[in-house]
Amino acid sequence: MAVSAEDRLAISELIALHGHIMDSGELDRLEDLFSPEVTYDLGDFERGTLQGIDAIRNAAIAMGDRSPVGHHVMNIILTEVDSQVVSVRSKGIGIQADGSSGSVVYDDIVKRTTAGWRITHRKVSARRAPLSA
Fold first, then answer.
1. How many helices (H) and strands (E) are present in the chain, helices listed first?
2. Could you say which DSSP state residue 37 is in?
3. Under a CB-based contact definition with an 8 Å cutoff, are residues 125 and 104 in contact?
4. Residue 133 pLDDT level (bands cut at 50, 70, 90)
5. pTM of the full predicted structure?
């Protein structure tokens, strides 16, 4: 069964919501994005793997002024794993306060919950070289 148009829209909006929540500092809304047991892999940035929403919130607070002022996501691709789980790949651009920018790839697993779709696993990979695999 393919991902329905309704689910596709809800999941795409979930992925887009990340930037709005992070950029506005609404860290009390991380439950709108992530499942309680979320794994957030920042190994590519030498920050290890975060477990749970509180760990993500604490890491964002610790970043302080080093956090991007703009998280922009695009090129969202969804692949159904089963009727309750979807794999999502998207590209992101982060804009720093000084105007510099960087590119990442988000690899997410999202799961249908009673509260709606939530990210249960996110791996953030930096794009540092053109045409890299």
1. 2, 6
2. E
3. yes
4. low
5. 0.93
